[in-house]
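=== Structure Prediction Worksheet ===
Name of assembly: unnamed complex
Input type: mixed (protein and possibly other molecules)
Chain count: four
Listed entries:
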Amino acid sequence: MRRILMHVGPSVGSYEVLLKSVKEDVGFGSPEFVEAMRSALEGVRYVMGADNSFTPFIIPGSGTSAMEAVTTFLREGDRVLVASNGLFGDRWRSILERYPVKVDYIGSEPGRSISAKSIQEIAESKHYRMSFFTQVETSTGVRAPVPELVKEMKKVSEFVALDGVAAVGGEESCASKWGIDYYVTASQKAIGAPPGAGISTVSGRLMENIPERSVSGYSLDLSNWKRTMESFLDGKGSYFATPPVHVILSLDYALRLAREETMDKRVRRHIASRDQIVEGIEEMGFETVAEPGLRSSTVTGVLTGKISPGDLLAASLRRGVEFAPGVHPALAGRYFRIGHMGWITEKDAAIAVHVLRGALKEVS
Amino acid sequence: MRRILMHVGPSVGSYEVLLKSVKEDVGFGSPEFVEAMRSALEGVRYVMGADNSFTPFIIPGSGTSAMEAVTTFLREGDRVLVASNGLFGDRWRSILERYPVKVDYIGSEPGRSISAKSIQEIAESKHYRMSFFTQVETSTGVRAPVPELVKEMKKVSEFVALDGVAAVGGEESCASKWGIDYYVTASQKAIGAPPGAGISTVSGRLMENIPERSVSGYSLDLSNWKRTMESFLDGKGSYFATPPVHVILSLDYALRLAREETMDKRVRRHIASRDQIVEGIEEMGFETVAEPGLRSSTVTGVLTGKISPGDLLAASLRRGVEFAPGVHPALAGRYFRIGHMGWITEKDAAIAVHVLRGALKEVS
Amino acid sequence: MRRILMHVGPSVGSYEVLLKSVKEDVGFGSPEFVEAMRSALEGVRYVMGADNSFTPFIIPGSGTSAMEAVTTFLREGDRVLVASNGLFGDRWRSILERYPVKVDYIGSEPGRSISAKSIQEIAESKHYRMSFFTQVETSTGVRAPVPELVKEMKKVSEFVALDGVAAVGGEESCASKWGIDYYVTASQKAIGAPPGAGISTVSGRLMENIPERSVSGYSLDLSNWKRTMESFLDGKGSYFATPPVHVILSLDYALRLAREETMDKRVRRHIASRDQIVEGIEEMGFETVAEPGLRSSTVTGVLTGKISPGDLLAASLRRGVEFAPGVHPALAGRYFRIGHMGWITEKDAAIAVHVLRGALKEVS
Amino acid sequence: MRRILMHVGPSVGSYEVLLKSVKEDVGFGSPEFVEAMRSALEGVRYVMGADNSFTPFIIPGSGTSAMEAVTTFLREGDRVLVASNGLFGDRWRSILERYPVKVDYIGSEPGRSISAKSIQEIAESKHYRMSFFTQVETSTGVRAPVPELVKEMKKVSEFVALDGVAAVGGEESCASKWGIDYYVTASQKAIGAPPGAGISTVSGRLMENIPERSVSGYSLDLSNWKRTMESFLDGKGSYFATPPVHVILSLDYALRLAREETMDKRVRRHIASRDQIVEGIEEMGFETVAEPGLRSSTVTGVLTGKISPGDLLAASLRRGVEFAPGVHPALAGRYFRIGHMGWITEKDAAIAVHVLRGALKEVS
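=== Predicted Assembly ===
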């Protein structure tokens, strides 16, 4: 029987999307791929709310690869600010500390978000090359108040980088309007394609500020990929390193579906599914990890009170639905997570609630 | 009509292999994936001729990512030797020069290989942390005389790294027997899976020499992936960054086919196809770029004399076969390349010769 | 977004099953097909509860083709009895009336079943070559009380034919135990494979009674297919007319899954889904067309009272679930049908109830 | 390694076409299917050269089912003429003899065709309701001289039926121009889709002559399917018996490709492949079964002189190509057959010749 994946890593899947990758004898220079890449790059701009002054990148790797490629824009000795809401916010720090830059860090309680005020406090009289934060913290399901944080960061840093890995495709995403300079995501989350591609858009202003000698390595140095992406956008093949051809065939199709659906409807679909799930778990007596105003539309962390989240997960899996365990150390053993992104519908939300209700009955 | 890809990047494809990646609702923690990863890691050891003292790695990215991950084992100030037979040999240098290590470099004429003697000359009284070279130089089709070069490198350097990207799966590959410490390949060449995964095996001796503070970045630092790979080898899920799940489902199947076929037969199959192609092009009055003794069994560079290689490629494409252009600057406009790896058979070789013969007639 | 098909024709689908049909260059004589056919024929026996004295047939066509092939066993002038619970019961009559046999017919009210008593009444002092009836009447969802009807039919006819098209794979099916001589089904209903194959098992006693000159045509004359089926059962290829090769590759896989699941568990799974759906629609104030004791586990006809079934269907389709309209003329405009067979799970049943509830709210 | 099927039953396959059938939750009433059926019916007219006065039919079953459905137009006692070039010509007789019609029969030597003269001779002073013959005799590869035979048949019979099973899609096909009344084919031969659908077009004049009481059975009675086909042509769903939904999704795609390619180019492609193969086998010292003027462009029977055709077939299969054995009893043990239809290209023809040459060397 079909198992349903409501994990937070890969999203609710789609055979239609996966089947687009089944093309033999298509290589990185074949016309089908060149067209898919061109169209996917434009799709990336669309789902990220990035106008044509932004350069889109699709590179081999994971969301983490796309995050690390920000080093393209950093010079030895640069001072940067990391504002973290949890494990994936901390990943910015882990990456940046491998490079010769100076990292300032602020964090928040699980379920809450760093605030404009906390940025004001740490930044006093300091100036940063770049500030880093996370749109949806996958470890808890908290969505940061992006516009007000960007506004504050812009006061204290030249550029702003946002990790939208668990957000883009399911949350409102407005690179241009918000003034994001480096906006990252991955193929396999709310965009709903298979994993294998790191995705970013870079503002025109940041592209003009690629340092002559950055701290970056070789394969994640976007200045190596720049010409390649420009060439694909122009409808011509180009090579720097072999792209994940078949993943991108699926990614292109997923992004076409997103354009067809429109991001407005897509965000509303994710919100409706989230609301249906939150209502369901509250009826069971559970609470969300995220404060009500900070609930993302893609991931819900569920505090299970006296019930063991591990038991609930196991009982749900026996019913054919795979949820994700909690990973935030501060809440160890107290919560689990429901991924509701990508091709999620109210039907899947109905399944999630139905299966959880059965699982709860079993383990209570 | 079906086009056939005899390019050197992606290999002759297989729908059977691609279809294995069509699995909805399989994530990086799902049992199917955990088993595929375990089995693929063992398959990597098999096709690389690496015994159980080697640690296999499959990471998101390209062959270049896997090459760059060698930085896991380098410390600031280390001296290294790059021995290059062409463009992809030069890539080792391009990567290493992004890091704070000292690079010595020797090159060769196109069609020939660096020799044991040339290593003796440059290495005189020097000692290297690691030496780097390339098994099959994709830009020309030259196969290096691996065993004798390793022997010489071992005299002058602690560790030896070999780029087997265009070789592993189609050429004899003996990590253990030859004494390779870092052996790299990618999913999409002679292994015959879709691109998206960087692959390596690391000798036990090198694994024990991971420096406390290496020069590597974050996502290509294999010390971050070590625990993950060990866990998968042990049949348990683990996470550092999201792997290209569906690519690995295909990769696992391709590696299972390789084990079933046995590497002995697989190498003989590649050699037979190469011989059939070489015989065909020689009958047309063409020559291989590689010296007779250095012809790889996976890529053949073809010098076309007075015939324009571009015209031949275009005429072949009209006949439904996509060969690869030449890329070595020293031979610009004088050759093209035939990829014959992965699922190549004598039937494909017959097509290559038939189509080229027709194309030649057309453009002569 | 994925639409879910809970129609009564094709069942809840499975990509896993469909993907098994994607095999290029497999013909009716290829080893993969010969093995699939052998295994599928055995699987047919298994899901029909037919022991080895029965001969299984898989022929190109639909369930109707398999029904019509019963003419293989009829001679000009034979007298037959059709006992019908609705539209698909009537189909037996429509078929038989095209042939030179004498047809007696009894029917029932929609929602109810022909009874043992009604057979006694019509059959008084008559003797039939064969009696025909229907296990699950697709037009209403009524399941006939098979064992007691067979018992009665055996008293008045030499052979008994049962249409199990909407039943086999989801209802208890016991060809041997019940004493069925000709048991029919199709690939696309509760077995859960794509349509294109007519399926039957024939008792040893009936096989021994193939008349020298039957009334049947050519391609539906099972005496033409007999040798072919015996050959496949024996693991050898054979040809009479081209079988639907790829449909059978999927069918074989679906039947393997059935054996793996076991028919016991499979029937219980269908019953659980039916119960969940019936409970749901009763909560909405609806009733089943079938009397409580005659509810099938594969199809539920739903009487919608004052609500228009057409409006409910349209509102459900907008929510992504396709139910089936009612087709029984006596209940025109008063009911619709839910198919819950094949790969149905409690998750799909939860969706059905959830979507119907939303649709009802919309149209009330 | 990929095996290539150059059998005469299923044709050279296409994964692209097969993958179109992978659609879950599409039933006979779903919009995708209704559109595919509409488009496929128009495609059938196109590949058969039938103008809009012809009614196209796509029914569940095989080519034989489509042949047998001609009984829709025959009345008890009708006199018919079968002109056969071999085994598949004889099939018309086998079918018709199951019905209460009077069958006259003429045959030809293997490799040759019935002639206009032989029809004149048998028909002397007789008049037939319908004449039947075969465009390409699959058992030998002989193509009948269709236009001149039709001309002669029209003199002695009201209607003319042509079996184009091994022809349509690869041979010139002109239902309107030639004046065919009943033109049959199947999905899996030169059209290049999977098997499972019987296909026909019926002239307006014949449609107007459906007898009130024909000799046909139920599921192959086209008067039952008429309304269904008309409804689909009109873009609306309709039901008589469940069609092979997924086979038709592939069939529609194959027919779209045919329209895109144009029948002119498609026929030329088949002829070029045939010529390449004939040239190849003649170089090996073999001859075609068919007289030079009667060689079909889809099937070639090869007389192997002193070489055992069975040995050649086995040696070819070991080289990965499956040819078809000979089946004409008059030539038993003296020939084999090469199917070159559907997606055949000069590349496949090159393989056929290459593999046969190797096989011949092995068995000589």
